[in-house]
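fyi for ur records
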Amino acid sequence: MTLAVDRPAVPSGTVDAAGVVRRARRAPRRHLRRLWAGLVVVLVGAFAVRVLLGDYTVTIPDFVRILGGEQIPGATYIVWESKLPRAVLAVLAGLAFGIGGAIFQTTLRNPLASPDIVGVSLGASAAAVCAIALAGWTGWPVSAAAVAGALAVALAVRLVAGDHGGFRLVLAGIGLAAAMQSVIQYVFTRVDEYDVQLVLRWLTGSVNGVAWSTIGLLAIALAVLLPATAWTARSLPASELGEDAAAGLGVGRARADVLMLLGVLLVAVGVAAAGPIAFVAFLSGPMARALNGGRTSLLAAGLVGAVIVLAGDHVGAYAFADLNLPVGVVTGAFGAPFLLWLLARGRTGRRAA
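which gave:
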């Protein structure tokens, strides 16, 4: 027999407070899910444009046949050796840069604290250029050196900034970034002429001419780092409130440090595969927050980063006749005005979501 439990009746005209709270909590979640779906649609569209269109057009049926292993003269080579690897690398690198940059900006509560600004990307580039020009390394050892360089710069910035963070961390990063830039310029004067193109890739960032083996290593690295980031980022809303508030909510500094380490590794593996594609990590987080009503979403930032790299690579390849610009040149051209606008408006901090 079921016992009926009488619930207190809500008087007519009285606001159901619990219902209002539930609806207020559901609305941002529904908006976030719609945002994710919309960004996925945009990403798929950008991917299709990058692979199917351009100076050599590939139809959708032919693309499906090529993926199935059928040999179509001309089209198979262009898709497998040029269009498809560039598009796949652009997506993976954009995800890494977008999520890594959003972690930096959110954890440090400063939109200027991106890997581009605080020297992590330049540290990876400096280590890679030194490995090429001074040690004569090629292949995966250069990528490993880039990851080590990014970690070394991040550790140095953290030690110099101490417990303060914020502007002190940004200033320390800017100083180390200038030092890394000087190292790169010096080593560049000593590079062999046969390695100039390879070194330039590490200076500007490019998704052109990358082997499938490198793309595979990046995919494996992201398969490990992204789930770890998703698990660690559960404490991100508390970390956004500041160290004192986060500690009061039971989130210690160690968890924030682990999340920052994962952000450094994401940026490092992205640089190791595609070079320091300028301003992608810097742009993705603010754009994703603007689309999400001021709230942070690492997945949205990663999807925005992937769209930026895909679109930038397509523009660099086809916007100018007889000129194929690296994607880092295009993103740098759009990212620099955004940085100046951000500084002019004085938005050096951010409201906690």
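The chain is about 70% helix and 0% strand. thats all i got for now
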